[in-house]
Automatic annotation (TrEMBL):
<dbReference type="InterPro" id="IPR029058">
    <property type="entry name" value="AB_hydrolase_fold"/>
</dbReference>
<protein>
    <submittedName>
        <fullName>Alpha/beta-hydrolase</fullName>
    </submittedName>
</protein>
<dbReference type="InterPro" id="IPR002925">
    <property type="entry name" value="Dienelactn_hydro"/>
</dbReference>
<feature type="domain" description="Dienelactone hydrolase">
    <location>
        <begin position="30"/>
        <end position="245"/>
    </location>
</feature>
<dbReference type="Pfam" id="PF01738">
    <property type="entry name" value="DLH"/>
</dbReference>
<keyword id="KW-0378">Hydrolase</keyword>
<dbReference type="GO" id="GO:0016787">
    <property type="term" value="F:hydrolase activity"/>
</dbReference>
Length: 254
């Protein structure tokens, strides 16, 4: 594997303050959060594959709104059917049991993603599609970076990514990694680099110090190094999409 399976660190973090400005609609019975750019254009779009907190987690909705503020139409499908993990689970919540028995896997997740992408590229007129994957979603950002899927992808602190999924990507891939990350530690980063170096697609891997797994979504914004790393990871994603998904950006806005 190019990263390890999810663990306890995947559910730890800080809820961020803010009010989401998007809306929730249904795509073939799949609840999906939509965030629109100022001009309401859907030609350049991003699909976000979330961590195990799911689509309704305010932090990821605020991130979607940030991408929209930078000119992208954004969709976040509910890949968990609402059966998600609460942030900082209480002591009586058995996270490892949830991962082993309730967390969705490829046979149920892939069909949902396929339906959403078909809808985006069909009825909604999406011409270019970027994939963003956080933690659990990192697997699918890589897995769907292929013909008929996403054209470009970004992932932060990915988990559960198979080596073959990295080897199978067909477009530009950008990765934001944490210095302290038992899911995507240094040996797995190096394994990923070794794979990417042998491929013909553009790639990028940025390592951020003083942060842990989950920093790009759930970090403590009161801590200056964490806030800086989260913002820089977001700007990394926007710059990547501006370069490989659309041209003529006026610069990223936080």
């Amino acid at each position: 594997m190019a990263s390890y399976p999810p663990a306890k660190c995947c559910a730890v973090g800080v809820k961020h303050e803010g009010t989401a400005t998007g809306e929730v609609k249904s795509i073939d019975n799949i609840r999906t959060y939509f965030a629109y750019p100022e001009d309401k254009s859907t030609q350049n779009a991003i699909i976000i594959f979330t961590d195990i907190m799911g689509m309704d987690f305010i932090n990821v909705q605020l991130i979607a709104d940030q991408f929209a503020a930078n000119g992208y139409f954004v969709a976040i499908p509910d890949l968990f059917d609402g059966n998600v993990v609460p942030l900082n689970p209480p002591a009586d919540f058995d996270l490892m049991k949830w991962i082993q028995t309730e967390m969705p896997h490829v046979p149920t997740v892939d069909p949902k993603i396929e339906k959403v992408i078909k809808h985006l590229r069909g009825k909604l007129g999406v011409k270019r599609l970027g994939g963003v994957g956080y933690c659990f979603g990192g697997k699918y950002a890589c897995r769907w970076l292929k013909k008929g899927g996403c054209d470009v992808a970004f992932t932060a602190h990915p988990s559960f990514v198979d080596k073959e999924e990295v080897e199978g990507i067909k477009g530009p891939l950008s990765i934001a990694a944490a210095e302290t990350d038992q899911i995507f530690p240094a040996p797995k980063r190096r394994e990923t680099e070794d794979i990417l170096q042998k491929m013909s697609v553009p790639y990028q891997l940025n390592l951020f110090s003083d942060v842990e797994h989950g920093f790009a979504v759930r970090c403590d914004l009161s801590k200056k190094p964490a806030k800086f790393a989260k913002e820089q990871a977001f700007l990394q994603a926007v710059a990547w999409f501006d370069e490989y998904l659309k041209q003529g950006s006026l610069g990223a806005r936080l």
